[in-house]
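Field notebook, page 357. I keep forgetting to write these up properly, so this time I am using the form the group agreed on. The chain and the ligand, magnesium ion, are recorded exactly as supplied. Prediction of the bound pose follows.
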Amino acid sequence: MKTLKIAVLPGDGIGSEIVEQALKVTKSVCQKMGHQLEYQEGLIGACAIDAVGNPYPQETHELCMQSDAVLFGAIGDPKYDNNPNAKVRPEQGLLKMRKALGLYANIRPVTTFPSLIHKSPLKQEIVKGVDFICIRELTGGLYFGRPQGRSEDGNTAYDTCVYTREEIERILHLAFKFAKGRNKKITVVDKANVISTSRLWRQIAQELSQEYTDIDTEYMFVDNAAMQIIQAPKNFDVLVTENLFGDILTDEASVITGSLGMLPSASIGVHTSVFEPIHGSYPQAAGKNIANPLATILSSALMFEYAFDMQKEADLIRQAVTASMESGIVTEDIAENNQSYSTTEVGKWITEWIEKQ
Ligand code: IPM
Ligand code: MG
């Protein structure tokens, strides 16, 4: 019997409510398939600042390092958003975790759910059948480049965008490998007409494309990509880009499928991988038992697939999620005819569906 060790980091806002459902589902899959599950909770984000004054405590880092996977909820608290002078911010916890675990690639699959297509802001014919993967570089660029700060008089601020060959090569290799297992097309998104880091990205992508001759490599400026994602999302297969562009484009890409509450993500790299919904901490909904748990439940499917190499377990979770949606057992954000269910009811229904298989 295999023991799966996971670190559970609920974080802030709706984090604890949605992670609880994903954990229930994970437990039922382990029981069904005969795996032993060991898990331990850790602090991260605003709740960690409140408890110990550090958004990513050393104890949490050690827990992550000793685990096979991290299941993560969300981070962020409005009391910090409107205070530009705060010395520590919850988001620093997430950035520290990404850097400390070497999570250089964030993978966000963008797929449509037939029962949700009518919720898309786009016309059905544009969005039906969309299926691509965004690969965002996660530990470089403007987020981490130094110097970063303010002049002494406080009236000038600066950030630095830095990328090394090594950082660009490893993320592009990963993207080419993903493309090999899919439709053999990658789109490298940059701003090489203006920015020098982007020119290095493009140069290296051109070099590497010689090694992957079976892959169709396409280059696109980020402003154009923002438009193409809306106009012709079916033309993408694997989209790869740097940190900040990826942050922006993946929010855009996520909503074309119908709801931000549906999309999971995996952050992978050197140490333990992290699985999390792509949405934020949704503080307005915290404690109300109304948040959509499906993105987090689908993140646990990605965890089985990427961290444990267990495809059957991942498929079982996805089938259960599809069944819940087809039966209308969904939260209010994606409900029809005012018939909606609570976060815990959706989690319970999916867990029981798995138990019955
Ligand atoms: C994301 C989020 C984070 C980011 C924030 C919370 C720091 O927007 O994971 O996309 O900008 O990377
Ligand atoms: Mg973001």
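OBSERVATIONS:
- The chain has a mean pLDDT of 95.
- The pocket of magnesium ion (ligand 2) is lined by residues 247, 251 (CB under 6 Å).
FOLLOW-UP: compare against the apo run.
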